[in-house]
């Protein structure tokens, strides 16, 4: 399976996850990512979106590209889809992503929990750096 397509889909699925801006956010995100119901919802959504993307028609864009290149646009199959362009192995991508997503979300939850533990130290370090930089300007 080509890796770029699944990575883009998963990245898009997690785009709405808020940034870890305040204490407690990391723990909340970790809890949400570890929630089996949320994992099942995300897996179903990713599978549906991936299936839809693979089924999208691609012929119109390819025909336009062929025309701009001075080639015969009629040589492009009018029923060509994104899945056809991605290759036969992409047909399994929706199912594979749906199966692997809970594991990925669990790993992200572990990273969020680790970040929550590290956040006070990182904030203190940032404050010390800001103080040191202010002193060095004097």
Runs in which pLDDT lies below 50 for 5 or more consecutive residues are 15-21
Q: How many strand units?
A: 0
State Rg.
22 Å
Question: How much of the polypeptide forms β-strand, as a percent range?
Answer: under 5%
Write the layout of secondary structure elements.
Blueprint lengths: L3 H11 L10 H10 L1 H20 L3 H10 L13 H5 L6 H45 L1
Task: Give an overview of the whole structure.
With 138 residues, this protein is an all-alpha fold. It has 6 helices and no strands. Helix 1 crosses helix 3 (36-55) and helix 3 packs across helix 6.
Short recap of the structure:
With 138 residues, this protein is mainly α. It is 73% helix and 0% strand.
Observed structural traits:
138 residues, 6 helices
